[in-house]
């Protein structure tokens, strides 16, 4: 009786080993998590690039208000200028997360000093934003920052440069103010 059970079990094992009907499903189950993870990493990277380009375009368009003297003659505050940047970023951003820095450097480009707003030890964003649009003929640097949240970071591809799985997006415009009159 025992040998009959063993021989039946061996026969079933041989049939199972020769059966190929479920091999595609098993192979897909092994490959699918990697493929799906890679797909989501590609999509997230595309969104980061799209958001970065949107921020860059908004800063270039808003900086034109300072370049032409419109912001100075209308006495824009930092909040008003930030609103101008935010109005150009409706779809991908929340205005609360945007940080705008405007600094004037006189009339010589060699005096421009750009520092990173990321603390190297803690990888945290340092919010020391200023607003000085300068006067006619001044060199001005307009920068905007946004802490973009990342979701696909545990698969070996981690583009975060801030703590908390965030990527700091930045956009910069540097120019000499036009000779405008008040």
Model description:
The chain has one domain. A three-stranded antiparallel sheet has the order 1-2-3, with helices on one face. The mean pLDDT is 90. The chain has helices spanning 2-18, 23-67, 70-73, 78-87; strands at 98-104, 139-149, 166-176. With 182 residues, the chain is an alpha+beta fold. 19% of the residues are buried.
Short note summarizing the structure:
By secondary structure, the protein is an alpha+beta fold. The protein is built from four helices and three strands, in the order ααααβββ. α2 packs across α4.
SSE layout and pairing:
Blueprint: H1 2-18, H2 23-67, H3 70-73, H4 78-87, E1 98-104, E2 139-149, E3 166-176
Helix pairs in contact: 2-4
Which properties best describe this structure?
single chain, 182 residues, alpha+beta, 3-stranded antiparallel beta sheet, 4 helices
Number of strands: 3
Count, helices: 4
Mean pLDDT score, rounded? 90
Considering DSSP H and I runs of 4 or more, what fraction of the residues is helical?
40-55%
- Overall shape: it is rod-shaped
Percent of residues in beta strands? 15-25%
The poorly predicted ranges are none
As for the number of domains, it is 1
Derived structural class? alpha+beta
Distance between the termini: 107 Å
